Amino acid sequence: MMADKPLQLVPKLRFPEFRDGGEWNTRKFRDVVSRGKETVDPQKSSDIPNLIELENIESKTGRIPSIDEPKNQISLKSRFQAGDVLFGKLGPYLQKFARPDSHGVCTSEVWVPRSKAVSSAFLLYLVQTKRFVQLANISSGSRMPRAEWNYLANADFAIPHPDEQWKIADFLGSLDDLIAAKGRKLEALRQHKQGLMQQLFPQAGETVPRLRFPDFRDGPRWDFLTLASASDVNPSNDGLPELFIYIDRESVKSSMLIERKEVTRGAAPSRAQRLLSRKDIILQTVRPYQRNNFFFDISDGYKYVASSSYAQIRAHECPEFLYQLLHTDSFVNSVLARCTGSNYPVFNPSLLASIRVALPRIPEQKKIADCLSSLDDLIAAEDQKLEALRQHKQGLMPQMFPDLEMK
User: Fold this and answer.
1) Cα separation of 267 and 243, whole Å?
2) pLDDT, tens digit, 9 for 90 and up, residues 301-333
3) Buried b vs exposed e over 265-283: b needs ≥16 C-beta within 10 Å?
4) If you compute the radius of gyration of the chain from its CA atoms, what whole number of angstroms results?
5) Predicted TM-score of the model (pTM)
6) What's the CA gap between 124 and 316, in Å, rounded?
7) What is the spatial distance between Cα 65 and Cα 229, in angstroms, rounded to a whole number?
8) What's CA 361's distance to the chain center, in Å?
9) Among 250, 201, 202, 230, which Cα is nearest to 313's?
């Protein structure tokens, strides 16, 4: 029998001009990048132009610190230049990357590797590969993974010829540019809707909106009622079904249901309490300023139960309008005023019933709801396109970089 032919260190997906280019080379990480640490004196304000912290690692240029920010409270930093690759070294930020277009400094939780044997453009994608992320995650034994240089430095990575590096980086860079453009379009739509809502709902202390549809410009003033007068807050139920879809806080993102967890009543967590009826609204009780609520309009034969980390609201009339109203600044501010905790604001759902809301007549409610729901549909469609692009890139990456485990 002939021995199995060893697998070559080549990517599954390769540009035509490099298909006969042979294997990629194996290099130690320390041979292609350096640690790139330049300490900064936090007492010198001139040393702090743009500042990138762990929380805003995906931003373009970071933020400009306040002039009054105490410099002695800022942790040790490293300098970066335009075009450098920055990535988070801690926990969930290990897969967060940035390539700023101006110079600045970053905190000690952000790493700025310096390219040696690879281009900085290619390095941006090398540190996004499955191999790098896995190595970074296991480089520390703590509960919160932390990328450690001494561990990564001795790891092997597959590196192609500089021409192929450039081609890969150029292609993936173009895809990132498209993703960024879609992201900006999505954000513009969200800002447009938010601005429109400011006009379509009365401001604090007012009884009519500043922008009104022609049919209602001479209509009556809006009525002020408690939320309990317009809806049932946390309605009771006769008990949970034997099998249901459970909605917890991780199940909803950008007001869309992104995860379905089918559970039995016996295995359900104690928080599974809100048995939903069609067109119920669930309102997050933690960090309500995020407005990550959900309008339940699903009829697929399953029963759905939401976590008690949501408040459940069942409108008496026009639930579509009430759902939009719950996202207005005036309502969110009323909720925040009833929250406890500053860094992690939480409110008791029972307090919602006493909040006063402004309501027009039903025909005007429906008109406003139709307008804003159409915008929501457009936003959701753009969000799905953006997610499809991200998934496309995520699917391409493992095929464009060879797996060292195959060697």
Assistant:
1) 10
2) 999 999 999 999 999 999 999 999 999 999 999
3) eeebeeebbbbbeebbbbb
4) 26
5) 0.80
6) 53
7) 46
8) 37
9) 230
